[in-house]
Specification:
mainly alpha; two-stranded antiparallel ribbon; about 10% strand
Length: about 150
């Protein structure tokens, strides 16, 4: 990991909660999406609107997996969330970018709308920034019995 990123930052709990909430939203969106889009083609280019976003069964299933991974990593912590959030933060931004490029084409396999792209950027930003402030390291006791950063 980069040595210039903060360790044991005082706002890490805040960012960890935001990351967990983002993962929980994605998970709930996926579950409701699977229920609402049952009977549709897996990768239909025209989706149904669920929780403000358009989705199809394929995108809903992927959302369940991604949301569960982000939420569980945020709950576990211990620098696992840092790696997971960094990867998924970048993937969300890239997904928003590519989806915007294929928005009104036959390659829109996840039935994205402009709203989906914007939400993908926002969630990518939240999850990505939370990876920057989530690093933790144990503190080692000094000879005087005080705790100092290792």
């Amino acid at each position: 990991m980069a040595s210039h990123l903060p360790v044991n930052h005082h706002m890490r709990g805040f960012w960890r909660v935001l990351s967990a909430l983002a993962g929980l939203y994605i998970l709930i969106f996926g579950i409701v999406g699977v229920i609402q889009t049952s009977g549709m083609a897996t990768f239909a280019t025209e989706g149904k609107r669920v929780l403000g976003l358009t989705t199809n069964p394929g995108f809903s299933a992927i959302s369940i997996v991604v949301g569960a991974v982000i939420f569980l990593a945020s709950v576990i912590g211990r620098n696992i969330d840092v790696v997971v959030n960094l990867i998924f933060g970048c993937l969300f931004v890239l997904a928003g970018l590519f989806s915007l490029a294929f928005l009104r084409t036959d390659l829109n396999y996840f039935a994205f709308s402009v709203t989906n792209c914007i939400v993908s950027y926002v969630l990518g930003g939240i999850v990505g920034v939370s990876s920057l402030y989530g690093r933790v390291r144990r503190t080692a006791p000094t000879r005087a019995g005080q705790h100092a950063a290792a």
